[in-house]
Amino acid sequence: MGHEVEAALNRRGHSVVARIDAAPGAGDACSASAEQLTEADVAIEFSLASAVRANAAVYAKAGLPAVVGTTGWKEDEPAVRDLVAGSGIGFLRTSNFSIGAHIFFALVEEAARIAGQFEDYDVLLHEIHHNQKKDSPSGTALAAAARVLKALPRKKRIVTEKLDRQIAEDELHVSSSRVGAVPGLHTLLLDSAFDSIEVTHTARSRGGFAVGAVRAAEWLTGADNSGKKTGFFEVEDFINAIFSKRS
User: Which domains are assigned to the chain?
Assistant: First the structure.
């Protein structure tokens, strides 16, 4: 992702101040220095969940806005929110920066809303990712599942484990597969005795996530002429802003 983000930054006319990677030799440095932070306008982070809280403290101390694509740090979220609130920086986090994925989310929610009017249709979500992915199901799948629960009242609970029993009517099954080098595939399935309807988003590369992250950084810092933001933001804040602008 670091290479993809750098390429996207270069295409959009930005420059990279420093490449930080904990692995020796993988970047310009293993940790950020005060000088690097002073020269930067924003941090774009794709790291490990265990690093997010400590990194947020560094950004807060330096007054540096940050865009974070790392998932799996829910337990640290209250502490990170407190750090952001006390620093006056802008901090935007998400499980998926892909613009196409957020179009998928909108379609998922609308499809679930329509299906809610017809009792014949049941629904599930399935995702496939590369065999190096460390979490399951993906944050994107869980975000899509939340949209289904929001739009389809008869589904009240998300189930992600293997089912060795009959699924309950109010459960939404979110299943996962891991294989090869698949960047990401997410499918909503609406199924009845008469037909099936699928809504699928297939990522061809990580480039779409990188471009979305760079655009989010432009939005957070006001580089897109929308004004600099402060506070803790979810990706929906950014997406709703750019979708509204397009409308």
Answer: 2-97+206-246 (3.40.50.720), 99-202 (3.30.360.10)
